[in-house]
Specification:
Elements lengths: L5 E5 L3 H4 L7 E4 L5 E4 L10 E4 L7 E5 L22 E5 L4 E3 L5 E2 L5 E3 L4 E12 L5 E6 L6 E9 L5 E6 L15 E13 L5 E9 L6 E3 L4 E6 L2
Antiparallel strand pairs: 1-2, 1-5, 2-3, 4-5, 6-17, 7-16, 8-15, 9-15, 10-14, 10-16, 10-17, 11-15, 12-13, 12-14
Length: 228
C-alpha cells in the first residue's frame, strides 16, 4: 500500500470537520491531484495538523511525522482545529459611563487560554463632558504571571500623555482626555502571560469624576495576537 508523505484533506464545510456531515476527500499536496474519498485514513505516529482555514475552515493540512508507530484498525481520527492566533474586534455602539468604577466595554474582549502569552493593542476614540477625564484598566484572569501595559492618549488641550501599568490590577492612576471634547484618542498596548486558569481579557474605563459622562465611540477596535 503506497505511503502518502504529505496530503491535503478537504472538508465541504465546517459541519464536516466534526463528523456530523460531509465527505472528506484527500488531495496530494505536491500537485493538488485528487486521490480519493477518505473513508479510512491510516497513518503513523507524529502527525501534526495545521489550521489554514480560519474560523470557517474548509481544509486542513496533515503533515505525517517520521516517528515510527501504528494506529489500531478501527481507531477514530479526530481533527481538532486550534484556537485563533489573531483576534480582531471593534466597538459596534458607543459605550458610556458616569461611574468612577470601571465599566467593561462591549466589543473589547478576547479569550486567553491557560499559560498562554498574548499581546493586545486597543485604539479608541474617546470623549468626556468634564475636565475630570477618563481612567482605564485591562481586565484579565487572576493568576497571571506577567502583565505590562503602556497607555498613550489625549490629555488637557488634546496633547499626548503617557502612563505605564506593570503587574498591578484596577484602574490606572493617570486620567486621560481631561479636556472637554468628543475627539480625544487612546491607545493601550499590553503583554500578558496567563496562569493555569483560562479566562477573558477586556478593556474597562471610568470617569475620574463621578457623574461626568465619558464615552468610547463606535469604531474603536482591538487587535490581539497569541505569542505562545
Amino acid at each position: 500500500m503506497p505511503r502518502i508523505q504529505q496530503s491535503r484533506i478537504a472538508v465541504p464545510g465546517p459541519s464536516g470537520l466534526n463528523g456530523t456531515s460531509g465527505t472528506i476527500a484527500i488531495y496530494r499536496a505536491s500537485d493538488g491531484a485528487y486521490i480519493g474519498p477518505a473513508a479510512r485514513l491510516d497513518m503513523g505516529a507524529g502527525m501534526a495538523a495545521t489550521d489554514i482555514g480560519g474560523t470557517t475552515r474548509k481544509q486542513l493540512d496533515l503533515v505525517f511525522g517520521s516517528t515510527a508507530g501504528t494506529v489500531a484498525q478501527g481507531s477514530a481520527l479526530t481533527l481538532k482545529a486550534d484556537k485563533a492566533w489573531v483576534v480582531n474586534a471593534y466597538v459596534a455602539t458607543d459605550a458610556t459611563t458616569t461611574l468612577a468604577t470601571a465599566t467593561t466595554i462591549t466589543g473589547s474582549s478576547f479569550t486567553i487560554g491557560a499559560n498562554e502569552t498574548w499581546t493586545v493593542d486597543y485604539v479608541c476614540r474617546v470623549g468626556c463632558i468634564g475636565t475630570g477625564g477618563i481612567k482605564w484598566q485591562v481586565n484579565r484572569p487572576s493568576g497571571y504571571t506577567l502583565f505590562q501595559c503602556m497607555m498613550q492618549g489625549s490629555g488637557s488641550s488634546l496633547q499626548t500623555i503617557e502612563s505605564q501599568i506593570a503587574n498591578g490590577v484596577g484602574l490606572g492612576a493617570t486620567a486621560f482626555c481631561t479636556a472637554v471634547t468628543s475627539v480625544g484618542w487612546m491607545r493601550i498596548s499590553a503583554t500578558m502571560t496567563n496562569g493555569a486558569t483560562a479566562g477573558t481579557v477586556s478593556l474597562g474605563f471610568a470617569s475620574t469624576t463621578a457623574t461626568q459622562t465619558s464615552t468610547v465611540y463606535a469604531g474603536s477596535f482591538l487587535t490581539a495576537r497569541r505569542i505562545s
